[in-house]
Amino acid sequence: MSKPLVAIVGRPNVGKSTFFNKIAGKRISIVEDVPGVTRDRVYVDVEWMGRRFSMVDTGGLDMRSDDVLLSQMRRQAEIAMDTADVICFFCDGRTGLTPDDEDICNYLRKTHKPLLLVVNKIDHAGLNDQLYEYYNLGIGEPMAISSTNMLGLGDLLEAIVTQLPPPEPDEEEDAEHVIQLALVGRPNVGKSSLANKLLGQERTMVSDIPGTTRDAIDTLFVDEDGARYNIIDTAGMRKKKAVEDETLERYSVLRSIAAIDRCDVALLLIDAQTGVTEQDTKIAGLILNSGKAVIVIVNKWDAVEKDTNTMESFRKQVLSDLKFMSYAPVLFLSALTGQRVSNVLGVVKDVYAQYSKRVPTGVLNEALADAQSSLQPPLTAGRRLKIYYATQQSVCPPTFVFFINSEDLMHFAYERYLENQFRKSFGFVGTPIHFILREKKQG
Questions:
Q1: Model-level pTM?
Q2: Which range marks the domain in which residue 341 is found?
């Protein structure tokens, strides 16, 4: 059952993200003293006074601007408000009530949602006189807080809880694992467009301007079969030299790397018009080093001129360019038109099943014996590697321990041979597999 949702809204730079991060206990939203930094909706789960709810941070509302990005930010905030159970309307106690605040207040009245008027940046008692003018808005008593100094946050959370809808009886958490699915790639390869197509709604901002998505955005999603996903749409990762002087984008790259670290399956998006670039290879390396399952998505396939062999040739080229990730399935689609997008989640489920697969010890050692009988380990300085037995230590990714006579005798090429034999025997499509060597002395 979904949790109640609380939306944090207000004009730019009134401290919404600072409050959000204090409640989350970690830096989720990007915080800079620059209007318009938070563009998309960012979520966190909160528990207070025994009630659980989700909180969503939104970009600053500008009700009058015709700027494309500001209009899209406004649209994102509107979606958050439409789905929210409670809205917290943030104002800046230092600057006082502004015409923009009044415009937003007039819009909020039309939502007919429970409203809490929050006056932020009241850092000491001497500023309380700033509250009186906010009574003119006519939406209830203003609550004074200081997000930076953590003053009044408990009172605000208590007020939020009192406005939440009553809890549903016998509400239980679903024990089924939520597949963490990260969309990663260079800027402007269609990550947000694919996220929106998968979700069937305008969940994240879509723009042809590289760098539109700055935060890694989580969205819970349940498909027609009841499988649960958390789709993480990340900022595009540009070359390091391109972001050295851009503090905000550096945060975004770090956030994208963190998204890879916490996902189960990474969708690596490649632009069909450019093919695999050096930066794509570096991002693939991050996924490999994190031990995550991966699916390569060749997006914008509708823009490529094709003949009967184009797709297979392109697939071979992609796997050649990403030779260290030859186990990855490659999908060709168009997030813009929706072509083949319906195939993605089925492949995600299959790859996650491989990523979390456990092989019985007996079956594993039969495959190991067959591999050794087909090709004996080579001699090294007159000595031969002996593999006594193997066992699977863990899953996600599948990790195997080999008990052997000497680590020095395990040649890289033979280790690669064993990996290929395991893939032939057990599949492991889309997932890396790890080997751990343990010396077992005789006697």
A1: 0.60
A2: 179-355
